[in-house]
Amino acid sequence: MTATTDELCLRPATELAGLIRTRQLSARELTDACLDRIERIGPQLNAIVTLDPDGARAAADAADAALASGAEVGPLHGLPVAHKDTHATGGMRTTWGSPLHADTVPAEDELVVARLRAAGAIRVGKTNTPEFAAGSHTFNPVFGVTHNPYRHGLSAGGSSGGAAAALAAGLVPLAEGSDMGGSLRNPAAFCNVVGLRPTPGRVPTWPAPIGWSQLSVQGPMGRTVADVALTLSAVAGPDRRVPISLGDPGAPFAAPLPERLDRLRVAWAPDLGGRIRVDPAVTAVLAETVGVFEELGATVTADCPDLSGADDVFGTLRAWLFDAAYTDLARQHPGQVKEAIRWNAEMGAKLSGTDVARAEMAHTALYERVVAFFDRYDVLLAPTTQVLPFPVEQEYPTEIGGQPLENYLEWMRACTLITPTGCPALSVPAGFTPDGLPVGLQVIAAPRADRRVLEVGHAFEQATRFGERRPPL
Fold first, then answer.
1. Quick check: pTM over 0.90?
2. Catalytic residue among 98, 136, 159, 160
3. Is 245 part of the annotated catalytic residue set?
4. Domain boundaries, the chain
């Protein structure tokens, strides 16, 4: 395969979509290029764990035929996509990273998968995830560990780590994932790509056993902010089966994004108001971002919303959800559910109705404080991660700056503190350490202001071009 074809695999999805639509590039040509790259580079990363080359080529041929016939096509027409292995794909194995589902083949697509297919995307396979998407390091007993494209032997993050690694390596131009405590944001930061945790309800999740919960959301990932916006335009929009789904259509998210941020009011919180410890190597990279925003026309002020209670809200509601989802499973199969999931489910089993009610009251108060904060500011900037990518043999970091951490969630608090606010949060490439490890910047806006985080992230991306630095594969 020529260098030119490899370069094709790393072009932005927005550009590839335009080439296909104008028939300068066929869906089959792009799909073949991606499949070839997956075959050559994929094994060293273990990012795409289930692959259907014959089905992908057949779908690509059908996409080309539809375009040649003059049929109306969707915004993602002909673009290869890989789905997170916790998202049900009809006729394709979906394991949830669990040996209990190693051979499960769902009958139907779940909603986010169906929407991508309806928008014209070509399904090539599934991306790796930790067991039941629990934790921000991608490994499981079914497929093993995913490696970081920028440094073999280091974590790609998680739980959408396979998606982020596949994007960074140019295996696919589009991917999707989910995010409860940072699972779209964390791997994006570790792999120098873009991940969006949308406002809950922006991308409806269906089916879902607890449809009213706002803790876990699904959302897009891409190599550029515009790619993420394009994907969001296809997967966002109301669904009457989902009680929290927002009524706005998705199409407007694909509109052109600005490159200036004049008069933007920015709050800068490098340690989220003293609530998180951050590796000095991360802080050193992010310190340069303030000047970039000022050059783009923004006013930057050191400030942070009052996040008191956010830890308890997230911890309580997560444990409650884990109890509902996994306690019975862990009792029935104690040796086949990882310890971190059993621990979280056991925490949930000890909760009382009063505990959950208090958490929801604190949740409401937190939301009101955050909404008031965004009356004064347009966006909040913070680290996406508190640490750099760590060795794959480590289940999770146990200390930051020499200070021990209490559990497997503690190192993700830069994201978990934001989750219960209901705010959209975008991780965008923010630079590299001197030895070449990526660092991500988290751009946060008021609830439902998803378009704003995309606009701000795009302007920063265009000014810095950090996302254009490809891994040495």
1. yes
2. 159
3. no
4. 3-305+374-468, 309-361
